[in-house]
Amino acid sequence: MVIIVIFTLNILFYERFTMTKEELAIEMGISLKTLYNWEKEKPGLVKLINLGLTVNDQIEEAERHLEKLKAIRESATNSNKFKLK
Predict the structure, then answer these.
(1) Secondary structure string (H, E, C) spanning 37-71
(2) Count of alpha carbons within 13 angstroms of residue 4, beta-carbon side
(3) Measured at the alpha carbon of residue 40, what is the angle toward residues 29 and 23, in degrees to the nearest 5?
(4) Residues 6+ away with beta carbon under 8 Å from 13
(5) pLDDT tens across 27-71, in order?
(6) Binning pLDDT at 50, 70 and 90, where does residue 5 land?
(7) Is there a domain that residue 25 lies in?
(8) Does residue 75 lie in a domain region?
(9) Number of domains in the chain
């Protein structure tokens, strides 16, 4: 169940860096008090949620870099410079 929650949070809260705790609680469908309680009483859960969100951010960044690299490769492939016969 926790794994499902983490993956759901990855999708829903990608923009967490610009969200307040209150906005995050609303998006999660919990009260702000619950969010504070989790931080205090279930730091492991909060750590897992943050880790999942961080991993998602890193995947997004890697995908952006991959697209740039593909464009560079395409440009180099279509260039006549240094083309060996």
Answers:
(1) HHHHHCHHHHHHHHHHHHHHHHHHHHHHHHHHHHH
(2) 1
(3) 30
(4) 19, 24, 27, 28, 53
(5) 778 899 999 999 899 988 888 877 877 787 788 889 999 999 998
(6) low
(7) yes
(8) no
(9) 1
- The reply to whether 34 falls in a domain is yes
Domain that holds residue 25: 21-68
The pTM assigned to this predicted structure is 0.51
The DSSP 8-state label assigned to residue 15 in this structure reads T
CA angle 50, 60, 20 (to 5 degrees): 40
Q: How far apart are the two ends of the chain, measured CA to CA in Å?
A: 59
50 located within any domain? yes
Close Cβ partners of 26 (under 8 Å, ≥ 6 residues apart): none
